[in-house]
TrEMBL record:
The protein's name: Amino acid ABC transporter
Domain ABC transmembrane type-1: 12-202
Topology class, membrane: Multi-pass membrane protein
UniProt entry keywords in alphabetical sequence: Amino-acid transport, Cell membrane, Membrane, Transmembrane, Transmembrane helix, Transport
Residues annotated as transmembrane: 12-37, 58-76, 88-109, 130-154, 183-201
Annotated localization: Cell inner membrane; Cell membrane
Entry keyword annotation includes Membrane: yes
Main location: membrane
Family matches, as InterPro entries: AA_ABC_transptr_permease_3TM, ArtM/GltK/GlnP/TcyL/YhdX-like, MetI-like, MetI-like_sf
Pfam families registered for this protein in UniProt: BPD_transp_1 (PF00528)
Length: 220
């Protein structure tokens, strides 16, 4: 076992680093795109913006991530979009995550009490101030648990990137199994890695939630 870890340890560490990179970039990209889509859908022209965003969300949520990834990576060249495996994987995660983040943010905005918005309008606050000082903080407190939960889901979706040869930790684990014909130890290492990864994100999410709640109480 020690000999196997010594031999494949550097590759597993490289895979771990790449998994972390794709997750960070994919989650950040999905969150930013999801926020922009929700702001456009909520405050933009409903006909020209609302229905295309809804169609995008329903398509992404209605098809498997693996299929979307194959279409992007193998079908992209048909429309002139030629991406290496890693950029295609990050872009695929971002597009996939954005659809779900958009819906989470929509629910968060809908959870803002109408009375607070009406009170802000009654004292003459401009619309932009209402959005940034009232709606966004309350929305974040409501949506944060769901945002963290889906970020955790995205950690496990990174293993699918191995299907387009992104050498993340699943790819390295499969290589280790195919060369050594040892299955229990590699799978155990993979499980422990994701368990630890998820625990770190969960703890960070709970701390962030407490800080947002504390900030909201101070502001009120």
């Amino acid at each position: 076992m020690l000999e196997m870890l010594h031999r494949y340890g550097p590759d597993l560490l490289t895979g771990f680093g790449l998994t972390l990179l794709t997750w960070v970039l994919g989650t950040a990209g999905g969150l930013v795109l999801g926020f922009l889509l929700e702001m456009a859908r909520r405050f933009g022209p409903r006909f020209w913006v609302g229905w295309p965003i809804r169609a995008y969300v329903e398509f992404i949520r209605g098809t498997p991530f693996l299929v979307q990834l194959f279409v992007l990576y193998y079908g992209g060249p048909l429309i002139g979009l030629r991406l290496d495996a890693l950029p295609a994987g990050v872009l695929g995660l971002s597009l996939y995550g954005a659809a779900y983040f958009t819906e989470i943010l929509r629910a968060g905005f809908d959870a803002v009490p109408k009375g607070q918005i009406e009170a802000a309008r009654a004292i003459g606050l401009p619309g932009r101030t209402i959005v940034w000082r009232i709606m966004l903080p309350v929305m974040m407190v409501s949506a944060l648990p769901a945002l963290v939960n889906f970020a955790i889901i995205l950690t496990k979706e990174t293993v699918i990137l191995s299907m387009i040869t992104v050498p993340e930790i699943m790819f390295q684990t499969q290589t280790m199994m195919s060369e050594t014909f040892e299955f229990v130890l590699p799978i155990l290492i993979l499980a422990l890695f994701f368990w630890g990864f998820v625990e770190v994100i969960s703890r960070f999410g709970r701390r962030l939630e407490r800080r947002f709640t504390h900030y909201l109480l101070e502001e009120s």
